[in-house]
């Protein structure tokens, strides 16, 4: 039993518990033109990485993307640009 490792031992920085700046719920345009509705932001159960849950307005499918990727720019353009609080569905 002395060799057992607590399940949270992989979390090196547990001081990062505050929610970072995150996208507000609403409609966003992807840099390639698609429309997506952000539903919520949550944490991965194992890594505690922040994730954005969103819905494709064209397909009706649900997606999860790391918050860091959601917020990054692609060739100087935001990956997702906020349009407004309205949703299409």
Automatic annotation (TrEMBL):
Transmembrane segments: none
Name this polypeptide is given: DUF1653 domain-containing protein
Domain DUF1653 positions: 26-81
Pfam families assigned: DUF1653 (PF07866)
InterPro entries assigned to the protein according to its UniProt record, in alphabetical order: DUF1653-like_dom, DUF1653-like_dom_sf
Ranges where the record places region Disordered: 1-25
């Amino acid at each position: 039993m002395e060799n057992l490792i607590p399940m949270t031992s992989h979390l090196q920085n547990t001081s990062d518990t505050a929610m970072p700046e995150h996208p507000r719920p609403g409609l966003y345009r992807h840099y390639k033109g698609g429309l997506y509705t952000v539903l919520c932001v949550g944490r991965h159960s194992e890594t505690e990485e922040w994730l954005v849950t969103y819905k494709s307005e064209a397909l009706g499918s649900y997606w999860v993307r790391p918050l860091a990727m959601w917020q990054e720019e692609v060739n100087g353009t935001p990956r997702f640009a906020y349009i407004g609080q309205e949703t299409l569905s």
